[in-house]
Amino acid sequence: MDDNGGMPVVQNTKVSVIGMGSVGTAIAYACLIRGSAGALALYDVNAPKVRAEVLDLNHGSQFVPHCRITGSDDMAVTDGSAVIVVTAGAKQKPGQSRLDLAAANVAIAQTLTPQLLQRSPDAVVLFVTNPVDVVTFAAAQSVDAAPGHVFGSGTVLDSSRFRYLIAEKADLAVGNVHGIIIGEHGDSEISLWSSVSVGGVPAAEFRRDGELLFDEEAQRRISSEVVNAAYEIIEGKGATNLAIGLSTARIVEALLGDEHRVLPVCTVQTGACGVSGVALSLPTVVSANGAGRVLEVPLSEAERTGLLASAETLHGVQQTLGL
């Protein structure tokens, strides 16, 4: 019961997904099977495609938590959303870097964001479209939204790849590994080895059978694998979609559940760790209000230098795009 005449307040758990390509579809599917949302609205300019995806998802409704699924090529389907996930844009081709995609996808974000927020003024808008840092910066600049209401999926997936590789090498469950990637979601990202903990042991001191597992060579190899993971997957199957679907569903849950969970999402930085005027990923508190406080994570000298170089790379791209 609440104090509004004894009627319970019904929480808005409507999530809209913009763009029904392989990533948008994977996000909708992950949200459905994890029970992340109370309602899913799918939008795409391709009407037969979006209708087909809605039918396909609805046909499995017996086997998942209850969720109302709608879809259309009319943006009105997104009206009154709590969270809007944007995946719309040109997709990365084999051999193409995320930053090469920038111009086309920035233009799409600048057009879409104001239209979406006009229909759902209180929504939090989460960008997954690559290059996510530059696209998020452009989208945030295109509207006068509350701070943290427009942010990007950032390095949440990269950090999951990072933890998986560390866990594999240590022969432990991934839940026992804590570690994050910061900076650009792309080639200049930084693995924060100085704060990695494996079962509570700092990575640099973690031994198995008396042998140090994470020496400099192992660290370099794992960091490089994280950066190149997407290229390998795109080469093999055309797109990365399943893990980004799961990691995005996890961000959606932190928003709708008002979890105050620390995730390395991408926001327009205003001075944390010496970075400002650019959107990139740092550990950030995610709650119902969107992306909030950015934590000042301790950085080694090399990590700080790497982060500032990553910010510089993104600054350069923003300038060439006139942002």
TrEMBL record:
<dbReference type="InterPro" id="IPR022383">
    <property type="entry name" value="Lactate/malate_DH_C"/>
</dbReference>
<dbReference type="Pfam" id="PF02866">
    <property type="entry name" value="Ldh_1_C"/>
</dbReference>
<dbReference type="InterPro" id="IPR011304">
    <property type="entry name" value="L-lactate_DH"/>
</dbReference>
<dbReference type="InterPro" id="IPR015955">
    <property type="entry name" value="Lactate_DH/Glyco_Ohase_4_C"/>
</dbReference>
<dbReference type="InterPro" id="IPR018177">
    <property type="entry name" value="L-lactate_DH_AS"/>
</dbReference>
<dbReference type="InterPro" id="IPR001236">
    <property type="entry name" value="Lactate/malate_DH_N"/>
</dbReference>
<feature type="domain" description="Lactate/malate dehydrogenase N-terminal">
    <location>
        <begin position="13"/>
        <end position="152"/>
    </location>
</feature>
<keyword id="KW-0520">NAD</keyword>
<feature type="domain" description="Lactate/malate dehydrogenase C-terminal">
    <location>
        <begin position="155"/>
        <end position="315"/>
    </location>
</feature>
<feature type="active site" description="Proton acceptor">
    <location>
        <position position="185"/>
    </location>
</feature>
<keyword id="KW-0560">Oxidoreductase</keyword>
<feature type="binding site">
    <location>
        <position position="44"/>
    </location>
    <ligand>
        <name>NAD(+)</name>
    </ligand>
</feature>
<comment type="pathway">
    <text>Fermentation; pyruvate fermentation to lactate; (S)-lactate from pyruvate: step 1/1.</text>
</comment>
<dbReference type="GO" id="GO:0005737">
    <property type="term" value="C:cytoplasm"/>
</dbReference>
<feature type="binding site">
    <location>
        <begin position="128"/>
        <end position="130"/>
    </location>
    <ligand>
        <name>NAD(+)</name>
    </ligand>
</feature>
<feature type="binding site">
    <location>
        <begin position="19"/>
        <end position="24"/>
    </location>
    <ligand>
        <name>NAD(+)</name>
    </ligand>
</feature>
<dbReference type="GO" id="GO:0006089">
    <property type="term" value="P:lactate metabolic process"/>
</dbReference>
<dbReference type="InterPro" id="IPR001557">
    <property type="entry name" value="L-lactate/malate_DH"/>
</dbReference>
<dbReference type="InterPro" id="IPR036291">
    <property type="entry name" value="NAD(P)-bd_dom_sf"/>
</dbReference>
<comment type="similarity">
    <text>Belongs to the LDH/MDH superfamily. LDH family.</text>
</comment>
<feature type="binding site">
    <location>
        <position position="105"/>
    </location>
    <ligand>
        <name>NAD(+)</name>
    </ligand>
</feature>
<dbReference type="GO" id="GO:0006096">
    <property type="term" value="P:glycolytic process"/>
</dbReference>
<protein>
    <recommendedName>
        <fullName>L-lactate dehydrogenase</fullName>
        <ecNumber>1.1.1.27</ecNumber>
    </recommendedName>
</protein>
<dbReference type="GO" id="GO:0004459">
    <property type="term" value="F:L-lactate dehydrogenase (NAD+) activity"/>
</dbReference>
<dbReference type="Pfam" id="PF00056">
    <property type="entry name" value="Ldh_1_N"/>
</dbReference>
